[in-house]
Amino acid sequence: MSLCPVTSESLAAVIEERWNQFVDELAAFCSIPGVSADPAHKVDMERSASFLADGLTRLGFAVEFWGPADHPAVYAEKVSSAERPTVLMYGHHDVQPVDPVEEWDSPPFSPVVHDGALFARGAEDDKGQVWMHVKALETLLAAGDQLPVNVKLLIESEEETGSAHFEQILMEHRPRLSADWCIVSDTAFFGHDVPSICTRLRGLVTLEVTVTGPDIDLHSGGFGGAVRNPTQALASLLASLHSDSGHVQVPGFYDSVRSLTPAESASLQSLPFSEDVFRKEAGNIPALWGEPDFSPLERLWTRPTCEINGITAGYGGPGSKTIIPSRASAKLSCRVVPEQDPHQLGELVAAFLESNAPPEVRVTTRVGAAGRPVVIAWEQPLLVAARAVMREVWGKEPVESGTGGSIPPVEAIGRVLGIPCVLFGVGLPDAQIHAPNERFDLGQYKKGIRAIALLLIALSKEE
Amino acid sequence: MSLCPVTSESLAAVIEERWNQFVDELAAFCSIPGVSADPAHKVDMERSASFLADGLTRLGFAVEFWGPADHPAVYAEKVSSAERPTVLMYGHHDVQPVDPVEEWDSPPFSPVVHDGALFARGAEDDKGQVWMHVKALETLLAAGDQLPVNVKLLIESEEETGSAHFEQILMEHRPRLSADWCIVSDTAFFGHDVPSICTRLRGLVTLEVTVTGPDIDLHSGGFGGAVRNPTQALASLLASLHSDSGHVQVPGFYDSVRSLTPAESASLQSLPFSEDVFRKEAGNIPALWGEPDFSPLERLWTRPTCEINGITAGYGGPGSKTIIPSRASAKLSCRVVPEQDPHQLGELVAAFLESNAPPEVRVTTRVGAAGRPVVIAWEQPLLVAARAVMREVWGKEPVESGTGGSIPPVEAIGRVLGIPCVLFGVGLPDAQIHAPNERFDLGQYKKGIRAIALLLIALSKEE
């Protein structure tokens, strides 16, 4: 087995040469509206999977579709040599819904490049970072003649809806998925010039609560004053979830949350957190909110939350409609920290809402998808290698960061496949993922391609 | 001037002979989707006005369109003799929006007849009752050779959105509209077999409240725990409007509400109110709600209310979307009782919501259309005549009733034109107006046509 002759410079030269192609391809990928939450986009999910499959087939990968036919995960592998280590890459090609679509400056599936970024739904989360991996593989194959390690990719299409079939896919294909490490790029840098590796993800559980009153919408004049309005009852229930300062008031909500160790606290405190920058990234809010006994980063990364993601109730069209709506419902999601079981926490909130149902209405709940939280050790060979690559490409020592977000598959990969993961995301905190005008910084895309290639070379020398 | 030779029997014979035509015409009228709240139905509003105008022109009425071109009020008059008294008829041909459209058993604008009723949006409120007036005029002209009184009709097309131009129309055309009495059929009987005349209408004011947090929807993982969710803030604000028992907690909300006189209380108590029947009519609710110190009828007719008509916030589509929505808004409406100024009450609620805005979000309000409440004297010639006609047609002494609903034009007619109104509505309490599967009982339609004709005859003998 010969060592790969590729250098950082030769990689950079290939990327420079093919740069326009790399950007155009990403734009084409992002033009496919693969919204996994919406059944209307079934065909687009298949088109999105095919686009990715074609890109990998052209690089000589053997590609298969796994899982449900209407939400296929793309599996691809290219084995160089049984003697070399194997790297699994995980990502997702499905994207978030686009509404409120009227707030996009350009249509979400008509990608445009300006201000050094590509703007489109999925540009960063996670099509951009998935395509960055694919282009790193292309760059390695162009700069050398083979990949430095065996590579397997598993790119699912249900991450934005809770990865319903992902664990089943892992179970079913466990032997095929055997690898030494897993690289996941679905996170962001701590700041614009602060390279970082995330070692902490919150878990997630979703739930819905519906308050039903009259069988039908009632005339608010004919019945108002003697009938409990389900919207009023829902507002009261939702208001009871939080204290005015943001502490969740569901009994038992924080029961199994452990305190941070002094080292963990110190690590958090050492980060260059700026409240002003955060307020700006958070859509220019006038002030922060949340549990007063914890710092913002503690609240974001180490405390569970309960958020209302949407309310559907009564009339929202033009003008007015003087009704007492028949029903009102809300979609909620809780972020979960280590030691908490997400499904149990969802059930706890659901039971709290049901037990506080007023007698004049009916309250029903449904606990949905759940994903466990993740903590990754900073001092392990995979992260040491990844940190060195970041230092080389971005010229700075990366910091250990967390995210309040959730990537349930990362937890599943660790548990089912028993291999270490590195969260090698290069997004930026103001990328507006999940929101209108999502963008991927093209500087990060370019550096990320080289960094992934270099990380594979570094890992080929491990073991 | 010769007395009209028409009898109750000859009217009934004409109605029987033309019954299929009368039902078919009403179905055709109801098939026009004249939803005044929705600008998309502008053309339908014009079609609806033309349908009505054609029907009146065929009866020899001189017809004009008044008010805004896209929401025309239909004015029609037929003067028999300057010596006879003149009756003004008021109604509206615009209808409520139809959503939730999926809850209709048949499409709202494809009228069907079954179970003795015509089902369609507007079937009762108010196209059915307007067409009942038109058919009463046709019946009189067919049974005799002229109308017993001079008749003027003013049928507007903005009632369901607050009658924005109605008062202006009254002012502008005051001389043309001079009349001795006004008949309005836009209310319902107290019960299925309880003929009644309504003497009490609540007023109305609408308002909207919007809570704005981040400029954009935020990722609920990346930001949850440190950002106040506008949906949570809106839920808290809305929950603060009512006590758990339904008393409105806005300071000053009840300030100018006077207590009922012993006679008023006695009249209310004498009505055959059944909580079980009401619960059924109110969409089978498990229990009533509202201010514990007042009876249900007192709460419905004599107490102001504040209802949430709808909430628009975040994601309501399939699956989940883990966001902190950028903003959340609610549509509210308050019912207003005598001595209260509706606009002032709207401003009071708006100020309460704004003054309770948490510092992490921005709260804005907009007070919309307002209409004043109405009280009509029971012992006056117009009502005495109307009560006699009801007794004759329905075979029972009518009761004095109220409604919690609002018909602001009735107040305006009294104030601007200075003439007495009778609320001669023959709807039924379970007609599901403003809700899916609205219907007009055809037995009431038939009797109502004869009753209106008889009332005009009776009024020709007044003075």
Characterization of the model:
The structure is a homodimer of 463-residue chains. With 463 residues, the first copy, chain A, is an alpha+beta fold. Chain A has three domains: 8-201 and 373-459, Zn peptidases (Aminopeptidase), CATH 3.40.630.10; 204-257 and 304-370, Alpha-Beta Plaits, CATH 3.30.70.360; 258-300, no CATH class. Helix content of chain A is 34%, strand content 21%. The first copy, chain A, contains 14 helices and 18 strands. Chain A has helices at residues 8-17, 19-30, 42-57, 127-143, 166-172, 220-223, 230-239, 262-270, 275-281, 296-302, 342-355, 381-394, 408-417, 442-460; strands at 62-66, 73-78, 86-92, 112-114, 117-119, 150-156, 181-184, 196-201, 203-212, 218-219, 305-314, 323-324, 327-336, 362-371, 374-375, 399-403, 421-423, 439-441. In chain A, the strands form five sheets. Chain A has a six-stranded mixed β-sheet, with helices on both faces. In chain A, strand 1 and strand 2 form a beta hairpin. In chain A, helix 1 packs antiparallel against helix 14 and helix 12 (381-394) packs across helix 14 (442-460). The longest helix of chain A has 19 residues, at 442-460. The interface between A and B is large, with 103 and 103 residues. Strand 11 (305-314) of chain A pairs antiparallel with strand 11 of chain B, so a sheet runs across the interface.
